[in-house]
Design a protein that fits this description.
The chain has eight helices and seven strands, in the order E-H-E-H-E-E-H-E-H-E-H-E-H-H-H. It has about 180 residues and is an alpha/beta fold. InterPro entries: Rhodanese-like_dom (IPR001763), Rhodanese-like_dom_sf (IPR036873), Thiosulfate_ST/Rhodanese-like (IPR052367), YgaP-like_TM (IPR021309).
Length: about 180
């Protein structure tokens, strides 16, 4: 099994100054619209087709493909998708857009949005609170299964670094863009 390389945001910025680098940002379109590295284009992880992305590279499939997200978790998953599809020269951007912005590197800013991570916390908290209150008010112990299910899901997400609720929320209409403001 092949592995992918990792690069710091400073190293990527240096390489971008010396020549064209291809960077894909695998966050949701709304997250991308809010802030992204200036040279990145959006290819959301939930719809990433590694073969299609490589086919669109117009003969530069042998050149490095840099993959970025917010902090590095989703880009790691995207890099693995490329490796699993048989592609090499895939490079994960360590620290993601957060590190890119903190380093003072050029970003494009757009409309503010609630991050996917915050949406998951809000949704999990509301479901847990609702289930707990319903169990207390009605005295129905079976309603306690609701917060227990959410707790189990959060535990699973923490252990596996895969969040089913996050994947579902990423597909919601408020996390999609209906205009050209989400493309770069």
């Amino acid at each position: 099994m092949s592995s992918f390389l990792t690069i710091s945001v400073q190293q990527l910025a240096e390489r971008n100054q010396t020549g064209k680098t291809e960077v894909i940002d695998v966050r949701t379109p709304v997250e991308f619209r809010e802030i992204h590295a200036s040279m990145a284009r959006n290819v959301p992880l939930d719809s990433l087709d590694a073969k299609n992305v490589m086919a669109q590279r117009n003969g530069s499939a042998h050149e490095p493909l840099y993959v970025i997200c917010r902090s590095g978790s989703r880009s790691t998953k995207a890099c693995q998708k490329f490796i699993d599809a048989g592609f090499e020269n895939i490079v994960n951007v360590d620290g993601g857009t957060t590190a890119w912005e903190q380093a003072g590197l050029p970003v494009e800013r757009g409309k503010k949005a609630i991050s996917l991570e915050r949406q998951v916390r809000i949704c999990a908290g509301l479901i847990t609170l609702s289930g707990s209150v319903a169990a207390i008010i009605t005295g129905n112990v079976y309603l306690a299964a609701i917060p227990a299910f959410i707790g189990a899901g959060l535990t699973f997400a923490g252990i596996t670094d895969t969040c089913g609720m996050g994947m579902m929320l990423a597909k919601m209409p408020w996390n999609q863009c209906r205009d050209e403001s989400c493309s770069a």
